[in-house]
Amino acid sequence: MSRTLLVVVFPIVIFFGCCLQAQTLNSIILDSATQKPVPYVTLQLNNRWTVSNEEGRFSFQLDNTIKETDSLLISCIGYGSIGKPLNEFTEGVILLAAKAIELNPVIVTNKNYTPEEILEEVEKNIGKNYHTGFAKKRIFLRETYYNNIIKTDYVLKKSTIKEFNKAFIDNLIREIPKSNTYYTEVLGDLYGGDDSEEQKLDLIKASELYDKSLEVNYEDLEEKFNKIIKENVKTDSYFKIKSGLFGTKVEGDELFEADVDSTDVAALNKKLEDEKKAKEDRKKFFAKYKRQTLGNLYGNLPIFKKTDFNVLFKTGRYDLVLEDFTYLGDAAVYVISFTPKRSEDYKGKLYINSDDFALVRMEFENVKNLRNFGLLGISLKEYLAKGQIIFTKGKDEKYSLGYYNIEKGLRAGIKRPLKIIEKNKNVKGRRKQNELSLKVDAAFGNRNRYELVVFDDTPISTSQYEAFKEHNKVLPTYMANYDPEFWKGYNIIEPNQAIKEFTSIDQETE
Q1: Nearest-CA neighbor of 29 among 41, 20, 11?
Q2: Model-level pTM?
Q3: Region 339-346: what's the mean pLDDT?
Q4: Distance, CA of 303 to CA of 283 (rounded, Å)
Q5: Separation between Cα atoms, residue 260 and residue 268, nearest integer Å
Q6: Would 318 disulfide with which of 142, 148, 269, 338, CB 3.0-4.6 Å?
Q7: Measured CA angle at 389 (ends 347, 119), to 5 deg
């Protein structure tokens, strides 16, 4: 695609004046030689920053504190940095040129550091280089979940309920979606430090994007199943569920939900109260889950000792190679590759600032299955974990997390016999009433991605941290299709094309 065409397709919308607070700077960043998008470029405007997505796209919210003469600083590993006033960005694309390596002679001649010595300096200077205490962070988290059914084989060995036959089960399997994608996004303020358990979250706004018609299919299947159960099973029965040597007991009343009499005011009020409580519980659960996710990401940063990425603290367990010198903006950085000697899980690259020995970027990928469980026909394999971590430098010359991107892949399977037996102790004769027996061979896959961008990181005191109390009342707004207006006025990481083009089969929204 020519540069001229890109200028037409990707215009930057900047209007300065009295309505500046409502404007957004949108663009795409390309390699000037290849014309290909440059991902994960850092952009700084005054004391704010963001990062381009994997397609090189970014957006910046502009408010009335921004002047047309303010400089936008753009930097990326291996490229020359760009810094110029906003009003000089007049084209719809931003081109980055690779930067020739012309290192300061002091860096080259002062000392010939080995990779081990460089990482020793990094570890030694962590306390000086990074914010590790309590801070208030404005965060945006996007999670992507892609689920697919790999295999659903079975053998029906016995069924005493005629409706539970092979045709019924085959129909159930056909109606279950073979794949689905779910996106959720949250914006909020995270209070905490380096302890993943000591996090507090103040949610501001949240969204979820998925095809609700797939959820309706599950409800239809459940309704069909329950109808058969109610017509063939006694309410005072109990069930023995067995799989090989293992078994459990389920009371029949757990499967039957009594209908509420519309004339029973007390029962109706109780149902309304239960629904209200369920909604409040969902708010608490939603906030708790997001807080735990953020805590896990923060607690696993490579600058902390209790991390999966332990290369800074266990250098002897890795083969380290000083591969290159390059630039991140105007800062010269060492590029060190690491691969496990024996049992460690990850390989990757570290980018170390040659001036202050701060780790500014890390790229990682697992070299083996992180989990590989298999027992009695049940299997779980975590086969993928790869991503990038970027640290940004503040005005106080200290670094903090700016961007964290990790993609995980899991595969689960079950290959076991399954038997469900209805028993009833209140009938004459045999207690056994019905039986369903199958042999199941199924497999499921998940690809999950977590993208966290930190727009602001402000240190706070212990008393400020302790004084903040969570009062989350936010539930995600459902979207059947991506709505570009939803996050208008807020800084987020630009969505990729797959999100922008997401369309539900069922267009109806709540």
Answers
A1: 41
A2: 0.83
A3: 93
A4: 33
A5: 7
A6: 338
A7: 60
